[in-house]
Amino acid sequence: MIALGLFVFDLTTAPPQEIQHQAAWRHPGAARVGLRPAHQYLGPDDELLNLSGVLYPEITGGEVTLDELKQMGDQGKAWPLLTADGYLQGLFVIESLEATRSLFWPDGSARRIEFRLALKRVDDDRVDLIGKATA
Question: If exposure means fewest CB atoms within 10 Å of the residue's CB, which of 7, 12, 117, 128 is most exposed?
Fold first, then answer.
């Protein structure tokens, strides 16, 4: 489906049920007397990607999967994002990871975990930001 660095989002890890993509461009305005503001194109703005889905630990990934994504986020590094067709989307950092646990087993572990992962694109030429796999 999608790979962020060496983490592959598939049926055994964290299959996304929804992928939301947002791209924006900067056009600041300068006030003018008696006229509409003058605008100038300054280039691309933040590009955001949100992946969300539901984990069923007995079928898909669970706490281990979330821990792996959290470790990647803790590094503060950028990761190449590739789609299933091999297209490189660019370098993305993990901005946030949300998890909502429900339907608990008698031992307190969750049978259902909803997740939302927020990614932000960084400059593609910043290879110094690329994260490394941890053992």
Answer: 128
Lookup result for tokens 């994002």: 81
Tell me the whole-structure pTM to 2 decimals. 0.85
pLDDT for 2 equals 93
In this prediction, residues 35-45 reach a mean pLDDT of 95
SS in 3 state form for the chain?
Answer: CEEECCEEECCCCCCCCEEEEEEEEECCEEEECCEEEEECCCEEEEEEEEEEEEECCCCCCCHHHHHHHHHHHHHCCEEEEEECCCCEEEEEEEEEEEEEEEEECCCCCEEEEEEEEEEEEECCCCHHHECCCCC
2-25+43-126 in CATH: which number? 2.40.30
| Collapsed DSSP state (helix, strand, coil) of residue 20 | strand
125: amino acid identity, one letter: D
Residues in Cβ contact with 34 at an 8 Å cutoff, skipping those fewer than 6 apart = none
